[in-house]
Design a protein that fits this description.
Blueprint lengths: L3 H16 L9 H18 L4 E4 L7 H10 L6 H15 L4 H27 L10 H10 L4 E4 L2 E6 L2 E6 L2 H4 L1 H18 L3 H30 L18 H18 L6 E4 L5 H22 L5 E2 L3 E5 L19 H4 L3 H10 L1 E6 L18 E2 L5 H4 L4 E5 L6 H12 L3 E5 L8 H9 L5 E2 L2 E5 L6 E3 L13 E3 L6 E2 L5 E13 L23 E13 L2 E6 L15 H12 L1 E2 L5 H21 L7 H23 L17 E5 L17 H6 L6 E5 L2 H7 L2 E5 L7 H12 L3 E5 L16 E5 L9 H7 L9 E5 L2 E6 L2 E9 L2 E6 L8 E2 L2 E2 L19 H15 L3 H7 L12
Parallel strand pairs: 1-5, 7-8, 7-10, 8-9, 10-11, 11-19, 21-22, 21-23, 23-24, 24-29
Antiparallel strand pairs: 2-3, 3-4, 6-20, 12-16, 13-17, 14-15, 17-18, 18-19, 25-26, 27-28, 28-29, 30-31
Helix pairs in contact: 1-2, 1-5, 1-8, 1-10, 2-5, 3-4, 3-19, 4-5, 5-8, 5-19, 8-9, 9-10, 11-18, 11-19
């Protein structure tokens, strides 16, 4: 029955495969729970009739297990929970030895597997390729009847009249499930071996056997891939490498082989709490080592705050330039596909300058207004950089060697460097960024990264958040590239379930859009854990590399988590390191003390107390790791704090009660253009999912198509907000949950019915009323001051309330995204007014209506023009 313990390891591995989305959206909670129960059941059966004695004092181990269970989140606390439950059962029903022994074994295995996952997380994103194996796999493929050859780390397979570039990656080899099986095998071999020498021999034997099995498994799956004709979507065939059911099935033969190779022996366990001096020192060393190693992963030097002097490199910017103003006159893709709004917003908090080349003065941009730069130079020099605290470089052209030297010196002396790249080495920007980033050990990939199923990546902040994401609960990516970094770096945004696809340099955007259905594109991808943002400390300075420049564009910067990420990165970079190499020191110290602990534990002969000591070591290690997490984990917030906004020219959109205004995850925004266009009148839009946060930041709040009722407390706060001198714009198209709100301001709504045969007058109405696509029927307003009337229907009215103002607009759907009423009339962020037929409606007139609402009716025009760019103090505001 002891051999069933090997099947328990497979079930424990399945638990993680069905719980974590490392290989994509594979989480199946029911299957995960069934796997966990199966693992415990196999363990209980494996310990059937095993002799064990329990000293009740040993149950004190429950305390560190319980504490770590509360601190560490699920599923990583599953091991301590099961182990604590096992010890509790041993107190209540000591006669059920096989039950609590099996549970204790499963808990110990899960804890060691959690440790292996921590190691995997820290390294897997930077080490995908195993191309050195390609000659071996190619030779074996040929021997087994496959037409294959090896070239530059890739196995080229000719099959089904196509040549498939078959990359050799750790993910295809199955390294993720293998490391989980390895972790459990180490525990099992240790517990069932007579002494440490036999344990080491057994573990080394497992390593040799299992590594050979990984290559054989890869070869068999490659044959299975080409066994039948490729489906229409060839990528679905690659599920044999990612689907948890396939992973379990492909590793089950290895486990069955281990059952045969590792015979069972009679086991006996003693859970006596016998701690001598040597063991006490070893346990203390374990706790210190784990604390140091965990601290090395999560500790962040608070650093010394700098003055917030920022330089934007516009000498080298190939795209995402910030030198062309987003205003009411320039429209089209170029007006929103640049970083002007981001830089203007940063200038509210930091002292931001742009450096441009001498040719900038004579460069013409059709329809656009250029900004006046603060610095003019044909190269970045140290004499320029030494006057700043942060340098931002985005999607650049090539640098001169002396410029790169100046940048490295700037960082080493305490500067912050923000590198922003994008997918597929577009226009050579990845190559140019790597000129600099490789000086710090960072590399921008020449690929495009989305989810493994081809969707845009939606990142959710998880365990061990980096300071860059402290204000960012989530982030919508628009397709970036992969990032590789040294082990000493900090994975700021580690993407789960992502796929890296090589660039297609014959296509627009360098995406694989010219041959999307080509089956040969399915086999050369990389997937799993992929860095999307990394940070590191270099000398006294800091570097942040980010993979997706699109999200800092004008049309994306203020929603989807983009501004949250940018301000987090800026705050991280606006600190000089207090201590150099502190993380490396902690890591090295942890390794040395861990080696001491291993030596002390290894030379002791624990005999029947092996499991007791192992569980004690794991429990104290879990407690020590939890302590480090509590002490050094980054404290997070749910939004960007109000101190990063100038209230006079900020407009807050209420995402708590409104319908979907801007996109988030799979939810498509309905009013994105309306939201973005506030930037054209020098306002900073902010969308918050708590009304209180919106009011704390903004001089005016916008609520659109409310879908949630306002609480009594929220109602009072909102009235007080307006009364104190702020603005409120409520946009609706029908009676709804907030129908009673206008009554607080002396307004009410009523319905004007559509007349018979009204279609005949549509175009006439729009033409005579400034070309606006607003009908003379629908929801109308009584009371207040009428601001816009269409044939007797008041659709926009205002009312003074205390020192503030309330605006009600009752035709909100006209401001929805879309053209010609599909579903709205506002167009999209890349549309120009000339793109719309004026005989249908005047898009520019609709834009002008929005501008009047904010500038004239809400009275934000004076504030925006007076304070924007002139209200900062020349240094960063205190955080």
């Amino acid at each position: 029955m002891k051999q069933l313990l090997w099947l328990s390891l497979m079930a424990s591995t399945a638990f993680w495969l069905f719980t974590l989305d490392i290989n994509g959206p594979t989480a199946i909670p029911l299957a995960a729970m069934a796997s966990l129960l199966l693992a415990v059941a196999f363990s209980i059966a494996g310990f059937w009739k095993t002799d064990a004695s329990m000293d009740k004092r040993y149950a004190a181990v429950i305390v560190p297990l319980a504490l770590s269970s509360f601190i560490v989140p699920y599923p990583y606390n599953s091991g301590p929970i099961i182990a604590a439950a096992a010890l509790l059962l041993s107190l209540i029903m000591p006669e059920l030895k096989q039950t609590w022994l099996g549970m204790l074994f499963s808990g110990a295995v899960l804890m060691v597997q959690t440790l292996s996952l921590a190691i995997y997380y820290s390294s897997a994103a930077n080490y995908h390729q195993a191309g050195w194996l390609s000659p071996i796999i190619s030779a074996l493929s040929t021997l087994t009847g496959m037409d294959a050859a090896s070239r530059e780390g890739t196995v080229l397979v000719f099959a089904q009249k196509n040549l498939y570039p078959f990359t050799v990656t750790l993910e295809k080899l199955g390294f993720y499930p293998w490391i989980l099986i390895l972790a459990g095998a180490v525990v099992l071999i240790y517990l069932t071996s007579e002494d440490m020498r036999r344990s080491l021999k057994g573990i080394l034997g497992f390593l040799a056997l299992s590594l050979a099995y990984l290559v054989l498994r890869y070869l068999i799956l490659a044959h299975a891939l080409f066994y039948s004709d490729m489906p229409e979507y060839a990528g679905s065939r690659m599920e044999i490498f990612t689907n948890p059911w396939w992973l379990i099935a492909s590793f089950l033969p290895l486990v069955l082989l281990l059952i045969w190779l590792y015979p069972s022996r009679v086991l006996k366990f003693d859970f006596g709490l016998k701690i001598d001096k040597s063991l006490a020192i070893a346990l203390f060393a374990v706790m210190v080592a784990v604390f140091c190693l965990t601290s090395a992963a999560v500790y962040q030097d608070p650093g010394i705050k700098k003055d917030g002097r920022v330089l934007i490199d516009e000498i080298h910017s190939l795209w995402e330039v910030s030198t062309l103003k987003l205003d009411k006159d320039w429209y089209g893709e170029g007006s929103t596909y640049n970083a002007y709004s981001m830089v203007e917003w940063l200038d509210d908090t930091y002292d931001v300058d742009r450096v441009v080349s001498t040719s900038y003065k004579d460069t013409k941009f059709s329809g656009a207004t250029k900004v006046v730069p603060e610095v003019v130079s044909d190269s970045l020099t140290y004499d320029i950089l030494k006057n700043y605290d942060i340098l931002i470089i985005k999607t650049p052209s090539q640098f001169k060697p002396e410029e790169m030297d100046a940048i490295v010196r700037f960082v080493n002396d305490g500067g912050g460097l923000f590198l922003i790249g994008d997918h597929t080495n577009f226009a050579g920007t990845g190559t140019n960024l790597n000129q600099i980033s490789k000086r710090f050990g960072i590399e921008f990939g020449f690929d495009s990264v989305n989810t493994i199923v081809g969707h845009l990546y939606y990142y959710k902040r998880g365990l061990l958040p980096h300071p860059i994401v402290k204000y960012m609960p989530s982030l919508d990516f628009m397709t970036g590239c992969s990032l590789k970094a040294p082990l000493s770096s900090e994975p700021a945004i580690l993407g789960f379930g992502l796929s890296s696809e090589p660039g297609e340099y014959s296509s627009v955007g360098f995406f694989r859009e010219t041959r999307m259905n080509d089956p040969t594109h399915a086999t050369d991808t990389t997937w799993g854990l992929i860095n999307q943002a990394v940070a590191l400390k270099y000398g006294k300075g800091r570097v942040v590399a980010f993979a997706d420049s699109t999200i800092v564009s004008n049309f994306r910067i203020f929603f989807g988590g983009s501004s949250n990420m940018v301000i987090g990165a800026m705050e991280y970079l606006n600190h000089k390191n207090s201590y150099e190499n502190i993380k490396q020191t902690l890591f090295l110290l942890g390794l040395i003390i861990a080696a001491l602990a291993a030596y002390l534990l290894g030379r002791a002969a624990f005999g029947d107390r092996k499991m007791a000591v192992l569980v004690l070591v794991l429990s104290l290690g879990a407690l020590s790791a939890s302590g480090a997490l509590l002490a050094f984990s980054t404290k997070v917030e749910e939004t960007v704090p109000s101190e990063f906004y100038v209230k006079d020219h900020t407009v807050g959109f209420d995402g708590e009660h409104s319908d979907i205004i801007t996109s988030q995850g799979d939810d498509m925004g309905q009013y994105e253009t309306f939201f973005i266009w506030t930037q054209r009148v020098n306002l900073t839009p902010s969308i918050d999912f708590r009304l209180e946060d919106a009011m704390s930041k903004a001089n005016a709040v916008v609520v659109i198509d409310p879908v949630r009722p306002l609480s009594p407390e929220g109602h009072s706060s909102l009235l007080r907000y307006v009364k104190d001198g702020h603005g409120l714009l409520l946009m609706v198209s029908s009676e709804g949950l907030w129908s009673g709100i206008p009554e607080n301001f002396g307004l009410e709504t009523y319905q004007i019915d559509e007349p018979y045969n009204s279609t005949r007058d549509y175009n006439k109405t729009w033409t005579t009323k400034d070309g606006l696509p607003i009908k003379p029927w629908g929801l109308a307003i009584r009371g207040g001051k009428a601001l816009l009337t269409v044939d007797g229907r008041v659709v926009l009215a205002e009312a003074d309330y205390g020192k503030g103002k309330f605006l009600l607009f009752t035709d909100s759907q006209v401001f929805k995204n879309g053209l010609y009423g599909n579903p709205g009339y506002m167009g999209y962020s890349k549309v120009a007014p000339s793109d719309v037929d004026k005989e249908q409606y005047d898009l520019r007139a609709l834009y002008d209506l929005e501008y009047r609402i904010f500038e004239d009716y809400l009275g934000l025009k004076e504030n925006s023009s007076a304070t924007k760019g002139d209200n900062h103090t020349g240094s960063a505001r205190p955080a």
